[in-house]
Amino acid sequence: MARACIRFLRNGEPVTLTDVPPMQTLLDYLRLTQRKTGTKEGCNEGDCGACTVALGSIRNGALVYEPVNACIQLMGQLDGKEIITVEDLDGNHPVQTALVKHHASQCGFCTPGFVMSLFTLHEKAAKQTRAGVNEYLAGNLCRCTGYRPIVDAALEALNTPPAPRDAAALAALQDAQDIFIGDDESFIASPASLDSLAEIYESFPDATLVAGATDVGLWITKQMRTLPRLIFLNRVRELQALHDGPDGLEIGAGVTYEQAEEAFSALHPDMARLLWRIGSKQVRASGTIGGNIANGSPIGDTPPALIALGATIELRKGSHTRRLKLEDFFIAYGKQDRQPGEFVSRIFVPKINAKASFHAYKISKRFDQDISAVCGAFHFAADGPRIAFGGMAATPKRARKTEAALAQGLEAALAALAEDFTPLSDMRASAEYRLETARALLKKALMERDGLALTQTRVLAAREVVL
Amino acid sequence: MPLDAKPGMDFKVIGTRPVRPDGIDKVTGRARFGADFNMPGQLTGRVLRSPHAHARVKSIDVSQALKLQGVKAVVTRDDFNADAVDPALMDVLVNVMARDKVLYEGHAVAAVAAVDAPTARQALKLIKVDYEILPHVTDVEEAMKPSAPVLHADMFTDGVEPRPTKASNIASRVEFGHGDVEAGFQQADVIVEREFRTEAAHQGYIEPHAVVASMGADGYAEMWCCTQGHFMVRNISAHLNGVDVSKLRVTASEIGGGFGGKTTVFLEPVALALSRKANRPVKLVMTRDEVFRASGPTSSSYVKVKIGAKKDGTITGAYAELAYQGGAFRGSPVDMGAMCTYACYDLKNVQVVGYDVVVNRPKQAAYRAPGAPQAAFGVESVIDELAQKLGMDPIDLRLKNAARDGTKSSYGPTFGPNGLIQTLEAAKNHPNYKVKLGPHQGRGVAVGFWFNFGGQTAVSMNVNIDGSIALAVGTPDIGGSRASMGLMAAEELGIAYDKVRTIVADTASLGFNDVTEGSRVTFSSGLATVQAARDAIKKMCGRAAQMWGIPEDAVEWKDGHAHPAGANAGNFPPMSLADIAKDAGNTGGPIAGHCEVNAEGAGISFATHLVDVEVDPQTGRTQVLRYTVIQDAGKAIHPTYVEGQYQGGAAQGVGWALNEEYIYGKDGRLQNAGFLDYRIPVCSDLPMIDTVIIEVPNPGHPYGVRGVGETGIVPPLGAVGNAVSHACGHRMTVVPMSPPRSLKAIKG
After folding, report:
1. Which residue, A224, A273, A141, A439, is CA-closest to B205?
2. What domains are defined for chain B?
3. What is the pLDDT of residues A215-236, one digit of tens each?
4. Min distance B309 CA to chain A CA atoms (Å)
5. Nearest CA distance, A333 vs chain B (angstrom)
6. Shortest CB distance from A100 goes to which of B19, B205, B288?
7. Cβ separation of A365 and B254 shorter than 8 Å?
8. Cβ distance of B688 and A466 shorter than 8 Å
9. Domains and CATH numbers, chain A
């Protein structure tokens, strides 16, 4: 018997909602329903961070707070979570005190979002450098200050340890019950198991699957689409599993970027660097690896690297499962090898052989929180090179001609890139720029592979910090 | 009584850095911004906007929308009486609601008020607008060509003799300068001439425009909105709706950034019209998409600069030609740009010509030193190139030609005391100027100027029974000005800062105040606050005299107390402000100080910026390594907020210089209307911007204050441009210097 309500904690206090419009966002719930206007709407598309709230989750028995953009967080994602907003802090929280002391608000509109991003950082109880603070604040825009007083305040606030918190109340909300609110025409479903998910999705193959809502949220708030039937994936137990085995990683499709960071980092440092470049802390706390793949975007940042690594995916429909190479999943723009009612359940990423070398880079206008102009991944293994690019074609795509041409040397490979790809010109980059930088990435990867000094290139790898 | 200016005075409160009055409110979510106001029975409004860049509006049919359940009002052009509108405000009316034509994508065509947002959005879809699509032009240089589609059939270029007989998109031509430029160029040993282009940028305030309007059946109305000038909002909204100004009371909310973009109206008159029609409160809030498409970004520009100099660096002649598009209506800031172009230099022969051009884009609004950064980009780049050619240090070249006290400016006035020389010298001695640069790195220097405004200002200061002060100002606080006013009031009264509470009063509570713009607030409202305090002091001295039974002129005010002074004053112990306040009811009633003034004497402002960058030769991406702002503040009332303005201006300038731009498609539609693709700097894009405050007092203010808000955005385009040019080995002439443009420059 499914549960017909969602339950969450609002700063420690239990809340049960039985009437939840499927497309309602957390921000609308706070500002319109609750008239809690402390959390601000600056863009309603997850770019500015003014609506940042802290989302508490139980992970491995511990209470973890992460920042999320309330504007693209749907209410259906909140079951079993705790929500803390700026209005829940009393004004004497170390983060608030430090921001006031350092005069870190000018207009103050972005401040509630900064408070909550820094609250989640403070809860980590770890010392930070400016680079670490930058990473935490990449999803919060401030137009007044130039960020200096905010960073100063952040570094000072971290000197005070966080108050101890009790995980018991939130732990008590975790259950294995499916949730269904609504009727066949319009509903929120939040299955708790893979079997339940497979069953309901097969019954409603035109329903929209929602993992982190970092894209689906925009369909609602930006494109004004009507999505009456939503199936949320974040409570499906099996989809949250991440197994680091001797042969490779098995990643449940619902694992967030944030949760994958450690395992990706162990796989290869470039994989961690690539993750840091995806969206912002808020986006990475919500967005999932599975969503990045299933969504099929030509500019998703993980598929090129996963293709280069030889990843495969598992798809499920009803009781039937199948596996295929990730590179074969992407057929054409907006078209993937996925049947109605079928969903991506797991991703398998092989380990990198000790003798192989791997390199992944992202080119965008801005280091943080930007969409790739070009994303390139290079895997030089004993059985041959595997090279894949994002942003160069209608799908993430392998550069097979380039791979083959490498045997004839660098110049041949650089020329072959133009045979593999005829990229588009758009507002993010011109076709010439895409091809030019794709060649630069290939050169850089080869130089790195060969252990050459990289004085001629500064293609971004790590975030640079200037104090 | 010592009520005159006190140069070199020994300040007790001014120059300290107390916490601002709105500090806690802003970290707790308690501060109420535009969209945070709600009224009982409030309706949600939405605006229907043109999908076309240029089209004739043949008809608008709202009948189906009105039939939709939950729709309470629809307004269109027919709800505004254009015949009754002051011709000077006609463009404002046409901009808030299109009339015979839509002039840009995003131009408002109709608005609805409904019970909720989904209903309002649905109603918009039911409004039928019949458009006749017309050819459009969005580029400033294209718009000036004789073959360009003409936006306004009645636009004949002003400032050209004889007046043209053919309509064009050139609204006006302006010219400034003196001497003989051609003769000047003939004396030159070196001449540099170049063309520059800058794309349009948006102010990028994080708070979208928002308003709640409520008009009763009796015609009296209230309005809450985020604006830089609620008196301006009141006057225009009332006028466009044919309402007495006094019947509309406007309260300014906290404002989530403006930078000039909230110095005009967009939604407010429409909200008032909807509320009148629906007889219910109506809330209108822009989406981020609307903010980009339908508020007021800055001008894009074409700038030509020609400067000649002798071998010793003396500039002999300087010419510039500017063309700024101001969107679909006359009024680009090309006039101010032309006046600022050469303001940093002491020149014998100078000429600047400017063209105000209309295109099918949203009507531009002010953006921090409007018009100045584009011109400065050209001039500072050419000065830098001259320095290269002359083999001179770029600071030395500027020092040799810098404007100073007594310089006749290129736009007419003769400058008074100012700090340009000091900022240049401080730059030369700053550690930033001495750091050794590595490969692919470059350093840029640039100077900048802004006039600073004064203007109409009214302030009230109430002395309360316990000796605390309620200070009411009429200029919305956009960068910490309530703290600065409190500091000045406390300084003048001789009491503690925390005894003063400063508020931004509504339009019914004070005389008219000009908009918070032009870096005028700390100067003008500050001057008025000091004058109001002096008014209150005079009254308090009178009360003390009355209580002591001595003549009024035998009382002086010192350190927050009335003191008997002079031979016949008698020997009374000093009476504190609180003592006098407590007895006010027995000595003549409430005590208040007032000042209503049209403030003059805003001192000019100069800055020098230093920046070091590194450009990636493989991707063209620029990383800013170091940034230093050196600017004259006259007197820094609250130094932290002065530094905040310096850093904020530089941060916006860096964003504009490197990445921010309006990108239009061939269809005349904006392609990047969102923070996703209009990239303002995030934390990792900026270094910890360093600041140096120079203080050359402004004789026009009792404490020497100069405005500080605007100048900071003037030098960055040039400074970053020079730095990137040195790093690339190629002169950059287009802003923004985005990675593709820089890569192209590197590859040649």
Report:
1. A141
2. 23-31+454-599 (3.30.365.10), 371-452+603-747 (3.30.365.10)
3. 999 999 999 999 999 999 999 9
4. 37
5. 20
6. B19
7. no
8. yes
9. 1-238 (3.10.20.30), 241-466 (3.30.465.10)
